[in-house]
Design brief:
The structure holds two protein chains of two kinds. Chain A contains twelve helices and twelve strands. Chain A is α+β, with helices and mostly antiparallel strands. Chain A is elongated, with a radius of gyration of 29 Å. Chain B has helices at about 10-20, 70-75, 100-110, 125-135, 140-155, 170-180, 200-215, and strands at about 25-40, 40-55, 60, 85-90, 90-95, 110-115, 185-190, 220-225, 235-240, 245-250. The chains are: A alpha+beta, B alpha/beta.
Chain lengths: ~375, ~260
């Protein structure tokens, strides 16, 4: 087998033009799959960012809650019922709602106001670029994201804005806390959020729970739902997944990204198959010679397979390097390209499978080559 | 049990030596018939050919184009099967061998020299010579050592790493000769080995082929139009209208140079 690989690879590399064309096809596939997949994962990560990074172990909200950014009001007094559940260490109200920020130039921008309880700041901004997260408790304090500078009129620390006709002062900027929606997040305290949103002080959107060490999240959720029949309670991972699934189902995002990824694979497969096929057509006499010398179909297929796998491996290696460069150059919190190891691994396996399938087409042609043709010159 | 069953692919060279002592003539053909279907009608190409080639003998097949020389060579090389008659190659009755065993016989015990050399253009001379060994499962490193030894014997050691495109026609044919001998085949079949060479290189190639085959005691069957190389043959047959006409036997010394 090793011996055949050496023949296969040498003949493959010898035809530099065709080899490079096929390689480009594989690299294209790898890059497309990884970048498309990475953008998809990046977008999905934004959908559950607040849940994943907010610091709560359990999210309690209105029955049927489905997406963190689209919350319904619940009575703030539920906080006390939740605190009474065994296993709950901290339970704090959390408020989310849409309002309008008036900009210095007279324009305005729709924002998603997020209010957290000032005593624990559970669910407050993290990843700060300027200022401290704790500064949000300062008078009129708000934290906005530096990546939303264009939308929010370049908010500098200390600058003033108006939200819901109330004064707001930027006390810090975060670095990359962006939601799935195009609406910028504005972090503030719970009471100030109620003012910005013109909501009564006895409502909130969620109760955020931190568990005592060793407490079982699912059991606590079950108990909360039992005590508050109109509430839903989900562990962080579950609610994060629900948020992601909401966008995938409602927007058809999965289908869209899936199709383009599939297209990338298909293009790669066609290029590899076509190149191998053209290469075989070009070397029909050589395959005839190999058959005349006693090469059987198994050996010839292994040679084609070796060529396909080699192209897949080399193309994947080059593709992964390119993906790393692309991620380094173009991935931002606005359009994050998330390429975890499993995505890179899965895409490589996929490309290898595609290339192996591609080798079947030229093999079909090679099977039909008659060794007699080398004696009929 | 058939000799093929004893053959281990990694012992191609040893196998050649073992079977060389077999008493059976390498080629025995009796009443061979072959026809092709052309335009819906069957056209006979070989009509009752009888041929027996002894071990170490060099036999030339001549005849006009379309007389069936290549067909006969293809049958002797286990590429085609006879429609009628008995063909025994290296003791194996072709009619009783399935396709896989015919392929094995060809790979392990028969060497081919083609008119257009048929070198793999992506491989160097050295790697081209190593191909039959690698098809037999010889590890690449061992195959390359043996291939280099063969290239040395055909005087191309210095050109071992050249691609076919960098070699002259004469050099390509010498590489092809080395390749045909790589697995130490008991039977060497040559199809117009001098047709693409000028007179000097044609004679040189034939002299080399004859010498190498004779030195190893191998049997050689050559299809040719080239009357200049006929003196290299022990016997010459002429194929006409699908029938083999006995030709004049010639004696050639071990160097294969008499009469040239």
């Amino acid at each position: 087998m090793l011996a055949l690989w050496s023949i296969a690879l040498r003949t493959l590399v010898a035809e530099r033009g065709k080899f490079i064309t096929a390689l480009v096809g594989v690299v294209f596939s790898v890059v497309l799959v990884n970048v498309q997949g990475g953008l998809f994962l990046g977008l999905l990560r934004k959908a559950s960012l607040l849940v994943d990074c907010g610091g709560a172990d359990i999210w309690v909200g209105h029955r049927g809650m489905f997406n963190v950014d689209l919350a319904a009001d619940i009575p703030r007094r539920w906080v006390y019922r939740v605190r009474s559940v065994p296993g709950v260490a901290v339970a704090q109200p959390y408020l989310l709602g849409h309002s309008t920020m008036t900009l210095p130039d007279g324009g305005f921008e729709s924002v998603l106001v997020i209010g957290c309880e000032r005593s624990t700041l559970l669910g407050n901004a993290w990843m700060m670029r300027e200022g401290r997260a704790a500064d949000v408790v300062r008078t009129d304090g708000i934290i906005v994201d530096a990546w939303e500078a264009v939308k929010l009129g370049d908010p500098q620390v200390g600058s003033l804005r108006e939200i819901g006709r109330r004064r707001a002062r930027v006390v810090g900027t975060s670095d990359g806390i962006l939601g799935f929606l195009i609406t910028p997040y504005v972090f503030t305290t719970l009471d100030r959020a109620s003012e910005f949103l013109h909501k009564p002080s006895d409502v909130c959107s969620y109760v955020l729970v931190q568990l005592e060490p060793g407490a079982d999240a699912h059991q606590v959720c079950h108990e909360i739902r039992r005590r508050l029949p109109k509430a839903d309670a989900w562990p962080r991972e579950v609610y994060g997944r629900m948020c992601v699934e909401y966008w995938i189902r409602r927007t058809g995002l999965g289908i869209s990204f899936g199709c383009s990824t599939l297209l990338g694979l298909l293009v790669g497969m066609v290029i590899v198959a076509q190149t191998l096929y053209a290469s075989v057509l070009d070397r029909i006499q050589e395959f005839g010679t190999l058959k005349a010398m006693g090469a059987d179909h198994g050996q010839l297929y292994r040679m084609l397979l070796a060529q396909a796998v080699f192209m897949a491996a080399l193309g994947s290696a080059v593709g992964v390097i390119l993906v790393a460069l692309i991620v380094g150059a173009f991935s931002t919190p606005v359009a994050p390209i998330v390429t975890p190891a499993w995505l890179v691994g899965a895409s490589t396996v996929l490309v290898v499978v595609v290339c192996v399938l591609s080798s079947l087409l030229p093999f079909w042609r090679v099977r039909r080559v008659d060794p007699l043709l080398v004696l009929q010159s | 049990m058939s000799p093929l069953r004893h053959v281990h692919p990694r012992r191609a060279s040893e196998r050649g030596a073992e079977t060389a002592v077999s008493a059976a003539p390498p080629v025995v053909v009796e009443g061979l018939c072959k026809q092709y279907a052309r335009g819906g009608t069957a056209t006979p190409v070989l009509r009752g050919v009888d041929l027996r080639v002894e071990r170490g003998e060099c036999v030339f097949l001549t005849g006009p184009s379309g007389s069936g020389k290549s067909t006969l060579l293809a049958i002797l090389g286990c590429i085609l099967t006879p429609d009628a008659g008995v063909v025994r190659i290296l003791g194996e009755n072709l009619g009783l061998l399935d396709a896989h065993r015919r392929t094995l016989l060809r790979r392990q015990r028969i060497g081919f020299v083609f008119q257009r050399f048929q070198l793999l253009r992506g491989l160097t001379a050295l790697h081209n010579v190593a191909v039959p060994l690698q098809l037999c499962g010889v590890p690449p490193a061992t195959a390359l050592v043996r291939a280099m030894r063969l290239l040395e014997q055909v005087g191309l050691r210095e050109r071992a790493h050249a691609l076919p495109s960098q070699l002259s026609a004469g050099q390509c044919q010498r590489v092809a000769l080395a390749r045909a001998l790589a697995v130490e085949p008991e039977l060497i079949l040559a199809d117009e080995p001098t047709a693409n060479l000028d007179e000097y290189h044609g004679l040189e190639a034939m002299r080399l082929l004859r010498e190498l085959a004779a030195a190893r005691g191998r049997t050689l069957v050559v299809v040719t139009h080239d009357v200049r190389i006929l003196p290299f043959a022990d016997r010459v047959f002429r194929l006409e209208h699908g029938r083999l006409q006995p030709g004049e036997a010639r004696l050639v010394d071990a160097g294969g140079t008499r009469g040239v």
